[in-house]
Write a structure and sequence with these properties.
Elements (H helix, E strand, L loop, with lengths): L4 E4 L9 H15 L5 H4 L7 H5 L8 H16 L9 H10 L3 E5 L4 H11 L5 E3 L7 H7 L4 E4 L2 H10 L2 E5 L6 H7 L3 E3 L5 H9 L19
Parallel strand pairs: 1-2, 1-4, 2-3, 4-5, 5-6
Amino acid sequence: MQPLVVGFDLDMTLIDTVPGFSATLVALGDELGVDFPVEQMTSKLGPPLAMMLEGHVPAERIPAVGDRFRELYPSTAISPIPVFPGAHESLAAVRRMGGRSIVVTGKFTPNAQLHVDHLGLQIDHLEGMVWGVGKAAILRETGATIYVGDHVHDVEGALAAGVTSVSVLTGGCGRDELEAAGTHVVLDDLTQFPEWLETHQSGHPGVPTNTRACEATGMA
């Protein structure tokens, strides 16, 4: 049997990034004299920071502004950001089954590591600064068999890697969007993941009867 390796997205999958991201945007805006639409910008977190800054600062300033955001981030965003319910339990479920957990995220790697350390996330490997289908190469290299995310671009990465795509509804993408993107399974949140994983690994890839997870049509 292929070894179990589960990849997880970080922002809005394992951790609720909104409070810290919002605080950093406010601090950055105060420095720059820019009134960022914080609620709008944090409504669907996941895309690279440069994309999020488009339309809010001049294009030629985006690299420098992005660098400043990442500099401010450790002092403004680490403490306010919690794990989602079920995150630690999901990582523990992978370990209990003899598997490895990896985090594959678009976040700046040093800042992602700060979250992992601060929240005590028991993972085996971290890869940052990868987005969308770019995650596929990492998933293949690490031997991932499952990738868990919250965004349609997480689904794209999983499908490009040929692994099982599991989506949670804790981010900004809804069930219909995720199913249309081709995800194999939708769970309300990570509290449902350990039971799903146990069922999946038993050789009967269904879903727990006490969840509203569903198989996307047309997918094996």
